[in-house]
Amino acid sequence: MIRIFTFFFLCVFQFVFSQTGYITSPQVISNAGGHFAQDNYNVSFTIGEIAIESYINPSIILTQGFHQENYQVINLDEPALHYDISVFPNPTQNQLNISFDIPKNTATIIVTDILGGIVYSKPDILTDEDLIIELESFSQGVYWLEIILNKSERIIYQIQKIN
């Protein structure tokens, strides 16, 4: 019985410890990047991964990810708005004038304070006429004027109320 147990123990021991060269740590698989292995050190990286500092030694700095320090914006496409809206005067003391050059349309006007609270709202106004917003009761500060056209297109202006 002892021989069978010893034989079984040696077989299991051989099977468990025979794969010492096998790497069980997780690796990153991506379409861009790479993997390097030397001695007992393995490094995997992907392009675009967030770089997080993880180990600092006076002679070695290891980080996760790939550093993309140099980048340049080539082109920025903004949707072309076909609306002619004038908001004046800005900064203002008492009144804010909104002049539309959009015939036969409706808009919703919302004025919010710097914290996002709605301080003025007027839905479904006709864009054939100019609009005057009275700001006498508003505190001095920065406000956001949001004009919603066709219930989907938003145009936002920063308004400054002065005393």
Summary keywords:
1 helix; 10% helix; single chain; four-stranded antiparallel β-sheet; mainly beta; three-stranded antiparallel β-sheet; Immunoglobulin-like; 2 domains; 163 residues
Short description:
Helix content is 10%, strand content 43%.
Layout: helices, strands, pairs:
Layout: H1 2-17, E1 33-38, E2 41-46, E3 52-56, E4 61-64, E5 85-88, E6 95-100, E7 106-113, E8 118-126, E9 131-134, E10 141-149, E11 153-161
Antiparallel strand pairs: 1-2, 3-4, 5-6, 6-9, 7-8, 7-10, 10-11
Give structural notes:
This protein has one helix and eleven strands, in the order αβββββββββββ. The strands form four sheets. It has a four-stranded antiparallel beta sheet, with no helix packed on it. It has a three-stranded antiparallel beta sheet with strand order 5-6-9, with no helix packed on it. Strands 1-2 form a two-stranded antiparallel ribbon. Mean pLDDT is 76; it is low at 19-29 and 49-53. The protein is elongated. Strand 3 (52-56) and strand 4 form a beta hairpin. With 163 residues, it is mainly beta. The protein folds into two domains: 26-71, no CATH class; 85-161, Sandwich (Immunoglobulin-like).
Mean pLDDT equals 76
The domain count comes to: 2
CATH class category label of the largest domain:
Mainly Beta
- Spatially, the strands of the biggest sheet line up as 8-7-10-11
